[in-house]
Amino acid sequence: MDVDFGNALASVAVTGVSEASLERLDRRVGRAHERIAAGIEDRTFGYASLALPEETDPTEIRTALEGFDPEAVVTVGIGGSALGAKTVTEALGCAGHHTLDNVDPVETARLLEELPLESTLVNVVSRSGTTAETLSNFLVVREAMTEAGVEWTERTVVTTGDSGPLRDLADRHDLPTCSVPEGVPGRFSALSAVGLVPAAALGCDIEAVLEGGAEGRQSLSPSLFETPAYAYGAVAYALENRGATTNAFVPYAEALEPLSEWFAQLWAESLGKDGLGQTPVRALGATDQHSQLQLYRAGRKDKLVTLLRPREREDVPIPDTDVDELSYLGGETLGGLLDAEFEATEASLAAADQPNVRLEIDRIDAESVGQLLYELEAACILVGELSGIETFTQPAVEWGKRAARGLLGGGEFEEAEAVEGKTSRR
Ligand code: PA5
């Protein structure tokens, strides 16, 4: 990933960051890098995520998938156990991947109606093996397969931790399994079996995704001026300290739209701690230029706008027309138009004193996607280091999970009692 933060500098946008302060911040980036590098080396909890490109064994994944040649894959998982896989398959155009993350009954029923169950692979993913949404959806899918006369045990692969109810279920039915790597929180697990099983099952090049991740790792150095991931993280951190409490993440490529969702989870769940953290906003260029851009240009000056694009893409020519006012479009391409929109947005934001950062990848392929995922994770970890927070925990998310389980009678949880206490007072 290349990072251009020229439009986030104080010389361009009044609310931007001065070059002198970035120079000073770079000393802290150097110290943070030392901690990150040591954490990767020792495979310390969380930091171990940045060792995944070399730790993930594609053969383990391919062995678990032996004998499957599915027409469709449905990933049953939620949050970090779903968004990485969705991001990778959509970016790489691995057709046939569906995600069942929510427990909206209408959507679950619709998907089960649509799927060719006899040629679908069910990919159940849960690190803890206890997440109510995932296990409920899985039980529903399993039942639907049985009703359709499909032997679910022959069409299911499980990715989970070394112990827990999902591991027990997989063992009991002798299901093929992959392991969630040790020391890797869900949202940082895209470059493991958690994020790669569906892509592998649908014939995509997961080895190249991991090679891209490895390039990301090689690019880490002690200076933000030499490390794209740290440049992005440091500028986001510096801007947050100057009031940019929102980070609007805007890829200019439909295939990267799920990446916005993945980024939003990464940023929010990792950095939303101790009263800190930018609120990530998911957007898509050029579509959201016709809606959200109004706010980004003329609304409160509390934002960083992150614009992401591939430098090369397959293109479609725009045909000539005999309508005079439209003649400027003839001879152009849709990709050229999208690039013009990107650059116009960037310039218009800068002209309105709205800091923005340009992220570019060469093209959307397996390698660049692997590198992009890795570098955005490294950027997030750097922000966590600079902010002095616990990047790798998610106590608020866990609170909600325990409360929901308790309310459903799945155990005694004080969080559920707190919810019951509140609702009974109404
Ligand atoms: O990043 C995280 O830790 C979370 O988003 C989890 O991935 C999510 O809650 C799902 O948890 P599990 O994999 O245990 O089902």
From TrEMBL:
Pathway: Carbohydrate biosynthesis; gluconeogenesis; Carbohydrate degradation; glycolysis; D-glyceraldehyde 3-phosphate and glycerone phosphate from D-glucose: step 2/4. CDD domains: SIS_PGI_1. InterPro entries: G6P_Isomerase (IPR001672), Phosphoglucose_isomerase_CS (IPR018189), SIS_dom_sf (IPR046348), SIS_PGI_1 (IPR035476). Its EC number is 5.3.1.9. It is an enzyme of class 5 (isomerase). The gene is pgi. The active site is at E269, H290, K401. It is found in: Cytoplasm. It catalyses: alpha-D-glucose 6-phosphate = beta-D-fructose 6-phosphate. Keywords: Cytoplasm, Gluconeogenesis, Glycolysis, Isomerase. HAMAP family: G6P_isomerase (MF_00473). Signal peptide: none annotated. Pfam families: PGI. Belongs to the GPI family. GO terms for molecular function: carbohydrate derivative binding; glucose-6-phosphate isomerase activity; monosaccharide binding. This is Probable glucose-6-phosphate isomerase. GO terms for cellular component: cytosol. PROSITE patterns: P_GLUCOSE_ISOMERASE_1 (PS00765), P_GLUCOSE_ISOMERASE_3 (PS51463). Gene3D superfamilies: Glucose-6-phosphate isomerase like protein, domain 1 (3.40.50.10490). GO terms for biological process: gluconeogenesis; glucose 6-phosphate metabolic process; glycolytic process. Catalyzes the reversible isomerization of glucose-6-phosphate to fructose-6-phosphate.
